Amino acid sequence: MTKQKDDGSYDGSQIQVLEGLEPVRKRPGMYIGSTGYDGVHHLIKEIADNSIDEAIAGFASRVDVRILADGGITITDDGRGIPVDKHPKTGVSTLETVLTVLHAGGKFGGGGYKVSSGLHGVGSSVVNALSTKLIAEVVKEGQLYRIEFERGRPAAPLAKIGKTDRPQGTSITFYPDPEIFKETVEFDYKWVVSYLRHQAYLTKGVYATVYDERTHERQAFYFEGGIKSYVKNLNIGKEILSSEIFYVERQVEDSMVEVAVQYNDSYGETVRPFANNVLTPDGGTHLIGFRAALTRVINDYARKNSLLKEKEENLSGDDIREGLTAVILVKLPDPQFEGQTKNKLGNPEVRRYVEQVMNEYFAYYLEENPDVAKKIVGKALLAARARKAARAARDNVLRKGALDGMGLPGKLYDCSSKNPSESEIYIVEGDSAAGSAKEGRDSKTQAILPLRGKVLNTERARLDKMFANKEIVAMIQAFGVGIGDSFDTNGLRYHKIIIMTDADVDGSHISTLLLTFLFRYMKELIEGGYVYLAKPPLYSLNKGQKKTYVYDESGLDAELEKIIADRKERGTEISETDDKFKQAGVTLSRFKGLGEMDADQLWDTTMNPDNRVLSQVRINDAEDADAIFTKLMGDEVSLRKTFIQARAKHANLDELDI
Known about the structure:
By secondary structure, this protein is an alpha+beta fold. It folds into three domains: 22-221, 2-Layer Sandwich (Heat Shock Protein 90), CATH 3.30.565; 227-386, Ribosomal Protein S5, domain 2, CATH 3.30.230; 409-536 and 615-655, Rossmann fold (3-Layer(aba) Sandwich). 37% of the residues lie in helices and 20% in strands. The strands form four sheets. The chain has an eight-stranded mixed sheet. A five-stranded mixed sheet has the order 9-10-13-11-12, with helices on both faces.
């Protein structure tokens, strides 16, 4: 680093002081995490969470979201309504204070909320700061009040509009600022639906609706069963061990603990931990307490009822959580989250609360449901045996691998670079395609791993079976991250894992098998943005020596229209009825598969970073993705048939939004 010359002019004038909401516009990522797709939708959450807090407190019964045709969104509740009286400290209305002052709200004591999802109290004001326009309307005692802002500044003072028949509550309309959100300011209907569905599950008795003016789509949610209904939904398509769902709701000191548990016959674990209705994907003290109690209670039951032999070691937490579906919801007056995006709960006392409730009531549940208890313990015992078998199989693979190129698969055509950030690996279907890819690649940064033979469907397979599948083992060795309890993304050898298969039904099936494996056993690679689907061309348009590659049917029509329009501009007569290919003066070639391409074609169309089309695999909604893989790759034929019939128009895997 070059040291700048010190001219001695460092003084107070160089210290920038940001007032009001200026810090939010200056550094929006500090407050909402990102300024991309996630950030835009986080704005909805900040406002809607306030409405949900009214419902949790018992003052609201419904939340309505309306996506506006002009790019805005309106969120309305029937709660108490944000106060409109003059605030004693700011001298302006409380409504304006809440929307313009950071750390102003009813979540810092004073009796506004006993329990809320808010941490910093900056939600509403941050949304205001990051919107071109925000309109707040409040109905209190039959009177309508309105105030409007532009980029966080009041456009006019609070106005009392007059009497109204509208129900009491708050309505916020806002428009994300394209100066801040340069990637997109368009709201995703599916995201809103998913968010509201979860909030309805977590808040028993709340009625939530969403309406999209752009498409006229509408959905409503109401779940009297709360998180029991949530667990039941998570287990759709899976064979459950018992229809009985364990459920408990108990107050401990000043907090509430609510847990629902049901086991299925899968090999995975689905646990959703929430604190004050906020999903904490990184867990926290409530999840730690739940896991500790679950492991202790099941082991105690197994010992007490001689389901574990005297010399057998205790079941591990991983064994016990195989096939587990659970929702944990804690409500507490002062949640301590890590960061404004609230990914992890930190309150130490919550671990004790959850452990106390689970230790007592889950033990009762097992005693009162011995048939279910025996099934749970039996499944855990099978998981323990499979884990030991998997460890032995893995050790065997590693021993063999150690004699074979430092643990790398023999069929891997590796790249010369050892820098993961510039290295990429193509998972290629078939020997002929792999041969062309090997010859055409950039050998410095591009590795090729050919697939030979059927890839195992890992939806219904434990680790011990995977270690018997050569294709799965080859990927584990090549990626360098291990699997199971040895998985570690720090060992990743390539920052782009590219699945390259034929653009046909067989190719899509292979891609789905590979994605199933990655989703179930290496999900962190997808979440880290390391997994991609290559998109080979469907057609080649040949005009003299010039070739144009087309990647889908719509692209074919567009290319033809472009050529015909160019000919029209040059005065060539064009008939509206003649064959488009003849008029364009081109011949059309349809690629049947990657194996048909020579090395140069494969490089030009699918591997050259300057020309290729890659689709990054993203998990927009983990629950939806889990359900899709269960339907597509599970044992339930009727679910798979219904799913495929409903989406028959999606011919290509990369067009399917999960």
